[in-house]
Amino acid sequence: MLEVIGFALFLGFLTILLIKKTSSNIALEGDFDKNQDDAGVQALARMSPAEFERAIINLLEDMDLRIIETVWVNELEIDILAHNPTPVIGGDYIVHGILVPEGDFVDSIRVIGLSDTVRAERALKGILISTGFFTEEVNKYAEGAPMELINVSKFKEILRSRGLPWPAS
Description:
Layout (H helix, E strand, L loop, with lengths): L1 H21 L3 H10 L3 H7 L3 H14 L3 E9 L2 E8 L6 E8 L9 H14 L3 E6 L7 H5 L4 E4 L1 H10 L8
Parallel strand pairs: 3-4, 4-5
Antiparallel strand pairs: 1-2, 2-3
């Protein structure tokens, strides 16, 4: 009897693993495919860490946020603490930037981590800016949290609408 239960558990985990490996993320692929030929998106996706940091800081300063601290977590991730000094609606913002290697996507672990940090630091809002795209499950983890998720195409549109520079394609 124990062998049957063990075999059933093994078969269940194997099935879950196979489904996870073979299922495609239709919404993600559509967004990715739609922007694959966009020169502006491609230029942002290939930014150097220094260019990425400057683009985020330019955006935050254009939004009248004051940069308090900037820390590179590793060679691909940056944390920026910014403050909105406006009375009543002001407060601290935690901005997490991720340079996404080509072919990779931002998964829910990053969103959960930022959400936990926003709550722990009692920040007004968390903003995750990426040079790539988010996986589909990210949206369900971001719902209800004081967060803004900005993928590379949205980042391009925000920079363009504010007249801010980004790397040349």
